[in-house]
Structure formats: structure tokens, C-alpha cells
Amino acid sequence: MKIAMHGVSKAFGTQRVLDGVTLECEFDHTLALIGPSGGGKSTLLRLLAGLDVADSGTLFVNGSELPQDEGALRRYRRRAGIVFQAYNLFPHLSALENVLLPLTRVHRLSRSAALDRASAVLRRFQLETHAHKQPALLSGGQRQRVAIARALATEPEFLLFDEPTSALDPEMTAEVLDVIAELRESGTPLILVTHEMGFARRSADLVAFVSNGGIQECAPAAEFFSAPRSEETKRFLEKILKY
Ligand SMILES: Nc1ncnc2c1ncn2[C@@H]1O[C@H](COP(=O)(O)OP(=O)(O)OP(=O)(O)O)[C@@H](O)[C@H]1O
Ligand SMILES: [Mg+2]
């Protein structure tokens, strides 16, 4: 997957959350975005998802420039499979109906084609016995697996996950991280915002450090953690790896 950003800025009111972000990178499977709370990771991911538009600058994903107008953005969003930290699922729908909804409504598959795809993906994530349960009857880990299954069922060009494990206890976190690690086999590239440093180190191809309105550093995972270049990255890693 290829990302190119030039001078990307985004402000909320008077707060410049992203301030002239420039990054060109290419990776096989996983790009992890890490950094302090409030640093702009989610804002950056929302721009890449086409859920928000930059105030200025250009963003290219796999060679095509992100559009500005709503119609083109809607088409662009269909290329992405998105999972956020929590509250991903419609509470009144079963796991199966949650997976079916974007397939029939957004991707315009027939009900039977959508059912085939949804059943296959729920099976793949060992969720078939839970298919008819509403989210309230599922564990947090199962809910996030349904959300991941729903994103993959649309056969996206790439996946965007924003802290998919941050609302989970350690055991469920491990369960969901295992699923994310297995996604490598499916070959769909993934951009993942995470606070799980061990996971980023082991599973990401590239790690980018987002802080103070910019990307301070982007490097292969091993290099990023063993020999961070920017002072800010060093301080951040020292602080969070202390315990
Ligand atoms: N829709 C919005 N309206 C106003 N301010 C916003 C909005 N979205 C984000 N912000 C502000 O922008 C800054 C960056 O937020 P962002 O959510 O991108 O950070 P983050 O790196 O994802 O943090 P965290 O690790 O806590 O999720 C924060 O100060 C936040 O309050
Ligand atoms: Mg965030």
C-alpha cells in the first residue's frame, strides 16, 4: 500500500491538530500509527478514511488523490474497511445483520450473495454460533471480531483500524490482536492506530509516530523501536516502555 501526503493540515476551531503533515511511504501489510493522546492519530485516520477532509494539502492513497466532494468521497469510502475502538455495531441488529447491512445497503449486493459472504466471514472468525445474537449478548472481544468481519466482508482495498482493542480487557485484547495478526494472510493492507507497542513491534511493517500536529518519524518497526531518531519519539518510548 502506498500513502503520500503533502502539507496536510486540519484545524478544529483555532486548534491546528495537523499542521502540514508530509509523508511518503509504502508497505506490504501493516502501518501502525502510535503517539500520545490528542496527538492527531484519529484525525489522520479519519482523513485517510474519507470521513473528514483536510483544510489544505493533498493526500494520495495507492496513487489516487482523495476527493473533496461528498459524492466522490462516498465512493472512496467504499474502498476502505473501517473499525473503530468501540460502539462499532448497531445494537438492535444481530451480528449477522450487522455484517449484512453494508453489503446490501452500501455495496448493493443481493441478499443471497450478501448472506454467502457474511456467513463465510463469520465462520472464518469462529463466530457462526453467535451470528444471531445482538451485540449486548457478545463479549467485547467477540463484538470487535464481528466489527472486523464486517469490514472484511466488503472486500476492501485496505483496512483502517482505530484502537480496536482499547476498550477491551487484556484477555480479549489478546484475542482480537490474534485476529488482526492473522489478517496478514488475507493480504489486505492495514493502517492501525494502536497503543499496543508489543503488537506494533512484532506485527507492523512500518511505524509512524504522530505528535504535535505532525508525523515525527516513520520507520520499519524494528528500527523504530531499537533506534528511534527523533528526540520526541525517544522520550515517548522511554516513558511508555518503562513499565
Ligand atoms: N471533531 C472534533 N472537534 C473538535 N476537536 C477535535 C475533534 N476531533 C479531534 N479534536 C481534537 O484534536 C486533537 C487530536 O485529536 P485526535 O482524536 O486526532 O487524537 P488522538 O491522537 O487520536 O488521541 P487518542 O490517543 O486519545 O485517541 C485533540 O486535541 C482533540 O480534542
Ligand atoms: Mg484517537
Q: How would you portray this structure in words?
A:
40% of the residues lie in helices and 26% in strands. It is α/β, with parallel strands linked by helices. The protein has two domains: 29-55 and 69-79 and 158-243, Rossmann fold, CATH 3.40.50.300; 86-156, no CATH class. α3 (95-106) packs across α4 (111-124). The model has no long low-confidence stretch (mean pLDDT 94). Bound molecules: adenosine-5'-triphosphate and magnesium ion.
What keywords describe this structure?
binds magnesium ion; Rossmann fold; 243 residues; 6-stranded mixed sheet; 4-stranded antiparallel sheet; alpha/beta; binds adenosine-5'-triphosphate; globular
The CATH class of the largest domain: Alpha Beta
User: Strand tally, please?
Assistant: 10
- Residue share in β-strands: 25-35%
Helix content: 25-40%
Structural class: alpha/beta
Strand order of the largest sheet: 6-7-8-3-9-10
Mean pLDDT: 94
Domain count: 2
Q: What would the principal axes of the Cα set say about the shape?
A: globular
Q: What gyration radius follows from the Cα positions, in whole Å?
A: 18 Å
- Uncertain residue segments: none
Find the CATH superfamily of the largest domain.
Answer: P-loop containing nucleotide triphosphate hydrolases
Determine the N-to-C terminus distance: 34 Å
* Small molecules (ligands, ions, cofactors) in the structure: adenosine-5'-triphosphate, magnesium ion
**Count of DSSP helices?**
9
